[in-house]
Structure to design on (844 residues):
């Protein structure tokens, strides 16, 4: 019996797919899984797990939060970057924030739990918190002193042009104090929760302020990574944490600093990527060297 | 060493490596697709499939074989996802929802690898390795096969025979993709990419929190994801995930793998048409566009224009410390210049202009150097259009590598070019008209960028995303699935039709009136035509999105 051509072709397609599924979908990955059992590769193929005091505490490649049950930083440990993966460093829901460079207006609701912070406000709040924790200046450009985005909604008489008629600090609601008192001689109001000033025609105007161009809190300390699992922090972020960690552990800051240096990866081959400090490895080494007080 | 110097050296080292290997790899590829001696394994495959490896196919038969194979693959992958809860290694996940399974089946068969789902919480290990990863191999082989068929159209004379699809598919998979993947996977495993069948290891972190260290056969899938310019990550975070891309050198290797085959195919073209310089000209067009794009993306990201990057002091949101800004920007350019769509940083949080570059790269039609196969046939179509435009301007006979470009040929080339802009612009308009664009995370121009990006990525079979937009709805999954399907197979049909038409011609000997197509003049013209065609098509849309945001 001869099959019609179109049917024969689909039959060949199905047979080809099955052959390739066995070859590429089973034999190939399973052979690699077997190769991953070889000594030297096995620890890596299993996820570079690391143990302390006989129990597995994580993977050296996967970042983790060093916070207590309430989410507050545990001061005797170096802190990781902010994370957008689940509740923070959750490998079962890896994610980035995906907020854009002009995400600067918060949605303020009467119930603070329903408010959402813009990326700018998240950055400002993190900077302030890190500054407080580590005793450095937490100010940043485009941030208010109370840690939200310094953004004005400016109303003009004729829409986009004409004299300024009304100015609102869109990310600040009562009981805050507006971060500037006047803008072009018009007094600045606080935002009313639930009001969409963009829809009402305000021109969104971020205000740079007088914060230093190079803030004391480094960039990686105030931004979430793409994976939400970044195992590294920059050497600069490690540096501002040294004094706190040394104090908490009653250790010599110079000794802690040496430990940081030992756990800092330079650029591979001198030019690949950027230097980073593996936070989990550093904290494990700290626990070994300096027992917590 | 300063950050900028390191970033420039990173790019230069990639250029040097690609220049060094494109010739041997291209020559090897040439022997694979031009050779007629079949190995024992290959003969076994032909017997199991039931095809005669020596039988040539006309363009119609070749196209129907491509479509039959892809249709069967879509149905198979759909069923696989819908039934995953009954299968081994499902990790306890539910069957994938129907609209999602349709989207993903189309996505992986079309070499797009758009992902509406998080791999770590949706797909079991068996679906990933025996469903999705298999398509990573064969969809890449299909792309190369179609490009080779087009080259045969240029190279052959007075024949209907474009080769045999089943032979091309088998030889490209077994002789090129599989061996490089095995070596690459082992290298990635040395770097720390996982390869196991574990459902995850529950650990208690140093401060007493709970964390699940995920497992999976990642390395094998990761390498072909880059080599086949597929881009579908095992995990949601794709190549930003430390288990997919753990070190700075694996990052280099992944970018290299993305660019390896696309930049080697012009050599195959040169060898097959018997004029290596024609291949160099094609490679030069690709390289000029690629270097310009990589450089611009780096400049925009390192400058860090925009309110949040200014507040932060660097465009570091959505980027990993180990890759920093520059190596992230280079990856973003490479992944969208090809049809890969893997990401090691999240484009949605890029500066306005830095985020526009991936979009523009895709709008260029992914020809610099483009997806495996798809990039070469896309660029050859542009070369054909350029020859035609040049012929109109100076009154020379439009010819390309010895074949006349007549009205039939130019019709196929024009239809090819029109497919993706039509899909992108109609799709974006439909999303706004139906209110479905409201699922964008960001508002204003950035929200428009998210929608345009989604349709551009799907229609060009890229698969990267301005990931803020929520696309896990029946409307989005269906619409983007259609864009991926039409954006892949309509161009393939037009390319094969063009190949059939070219193969039938007798070659025209070059004369005084022939425009030389290997000189800098022609290279410059192809670059110009590519940029102008794209600018005319997409500038209004870009003006309302990223340009409005960045200015």
């Amino acid at each position: 019996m001869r099959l019609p051509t179109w049917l024969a072709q689909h039959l060949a397609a199905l047979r080809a797919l099955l052959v390739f599924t066995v070859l590429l979908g089973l034999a190939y990955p399973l052979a690699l899984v077997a190769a991953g059992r070889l000594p030297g590769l096995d620890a890596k193929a299993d996820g570079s797990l690391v143990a302390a005091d006989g129990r597995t505490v994580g993977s050296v490649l996967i970042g983790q939060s060093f916070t207590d049950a309430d989410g507050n930083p545990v001061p005797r440990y170096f802190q990781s970057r902010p994370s957008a993966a689940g509740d923070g460093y959750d490998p079962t829901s890896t994610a980035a924030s995906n907020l854009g460079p002009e995400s600067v207006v918060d949605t303020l609701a009467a119930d603070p739990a329903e408010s959402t912070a813009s990326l700018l406000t998240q950055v400002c709040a993190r900077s302030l918190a890190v500054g407080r924790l580590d005793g450095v200046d937490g100010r940043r450009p485009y941030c208010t002193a109370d840690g939200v985005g310094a953004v004005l909604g400016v109303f003009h008489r004729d829409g986009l042009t004409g004299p300024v008629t009304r100015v609102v600090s869109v990310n600040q609601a009562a009981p805050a104090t507006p971060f500037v008192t006047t803008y072009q001689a018009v007094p600045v109001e606080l935002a009313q929760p639930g009001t969409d000033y963009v829809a009402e025609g305000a021109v969104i105007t971020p205000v740079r302020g007088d914060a230093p161009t190079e803030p004391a809190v480094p960039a990686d300390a105030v931004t979430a990574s793409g994976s939400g699992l970044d195992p590294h922090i920059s050497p600069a972020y490690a540096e501002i944490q040294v004094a706190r960690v040394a104090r908490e552990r009653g250790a010599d800051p110079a000794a802690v600093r040496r430990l940081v240096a030992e756990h800092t990866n330079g650029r591979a081959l001198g030019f690949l990527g950027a230097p980073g400090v593996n936070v989990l490895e550093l904290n494990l080494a700290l626990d070994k060297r300096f027992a917590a007080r | 060493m300063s950050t900028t110097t390191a970033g420039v050296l990173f790019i230069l080292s990639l250029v040097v490596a690609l220049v060094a290997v494109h010739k041997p790899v291209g020559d090897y590829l040439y022997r694979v697709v031009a050779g007629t001696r079949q190995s024992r394994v290959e003969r076994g495959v032909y017997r199991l499939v039931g095809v005669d490896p020596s039988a040539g196919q006309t363009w119609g038969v070749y196209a129907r074989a491509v479509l039959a194979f892809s249709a069967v693959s879509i149905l198979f992958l759909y069923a696989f996802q819908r039934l995953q809860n009954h299968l081994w290694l499902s990790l306890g996940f539910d069957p994938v929802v129907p609209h999602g399974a349709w989207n993903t089946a189309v996505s992986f068969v079309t070499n797009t690898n758009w992902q509406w789902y998080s791999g770590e919480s949706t797909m079991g290990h068996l679906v990933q390795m025996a469903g999705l990863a298999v398509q990573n191999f064969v969809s890449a082989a299909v792309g190369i096969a179609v490009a080779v068929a087009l080259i045969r159209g240029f190279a052959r004379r007075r024949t209907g025979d474009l080769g045999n699809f089943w032979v091309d598919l088998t030889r490209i998979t077994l002789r090129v993709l599989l061996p490089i993947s095995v070596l690459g996977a082992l290298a990635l495993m040395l770097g720390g990419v996982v390869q196991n069948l574990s459902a995850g290891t529950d650990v208690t972190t140093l401060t007493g929190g709970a964390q699940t260290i995920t497992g999976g056969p990642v390395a094998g899938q990761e390498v072909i994801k880059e080599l086949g310019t597929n881009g579908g990550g095992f995990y949601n975070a794709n190549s930003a995930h430390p288990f997919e891309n753990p070190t700075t050198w694996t990052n280099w290797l992944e970018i290299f793998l993305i660019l390896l085959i696309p930049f080697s195919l012009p050599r195959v073209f040169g060898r097959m048409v018997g004029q290596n310089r024609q291949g160099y000209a094609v490679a030069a067009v690709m390289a000029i566009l690629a270097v310009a794009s990589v450089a611009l993306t780096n400049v925009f990201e390192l400058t860090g224009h925009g309110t949040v990057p200014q507040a932060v002091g660097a465009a570091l949101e959505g980027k990993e410390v180990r890759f920093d800004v520059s190596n992230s920007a280079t990856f973003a350019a490479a992944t969208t210049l090809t049809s890969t769509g893997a990401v090691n940083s999240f484009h949605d949080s890029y500066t306005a202009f830095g985020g526009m570059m991936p979009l523009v790269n895709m709008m260029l039609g992914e020809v610099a150097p483009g997806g495996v196969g798809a990039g070469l046939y896309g660029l050859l179509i542009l070369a054909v259009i350029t020859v035609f435009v040049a012929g109109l301007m100076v009154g020379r006979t439009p010819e390309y590598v010895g074949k006349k470009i007549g009205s039939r040929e130019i019709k196929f080339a024009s239809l090819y070019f029109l497919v993706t802009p039509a899909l992108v612009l109609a799709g974006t308009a439909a999303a706004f008209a139906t209110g479905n664009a409201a699922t964008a995370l960001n508002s204003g121009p950035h929200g428009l960028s998210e929608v345009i990006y989604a349709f551009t990525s799907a229609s060009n079979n890229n698969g990267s995303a301005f990931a803020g937009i929520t696309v896990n709805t029946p409307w989005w999954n269906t619409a983007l699935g259609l864009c991926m399907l039409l954006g892949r197979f309509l161009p393939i049909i037009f390319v094969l039709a063009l190949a059939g038409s070219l193969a039938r011609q007798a070659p025209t000997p070059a004369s005084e009136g022939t425009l030389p197509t290997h000189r800098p003049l022609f290279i410059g013209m192809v670059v110009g035509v590519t940029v102008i065609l794209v600018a005319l098509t997409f500038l209004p849309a870009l003006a309302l999105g990223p340009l409005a945001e960045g200015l």
Observations:
- Residues 3-550 of chain B form one domain.
- Chain B has a mean pLDDT of 94.
- Strands of chain B lie at 201-204, 210-213, 399-400, 403-404.
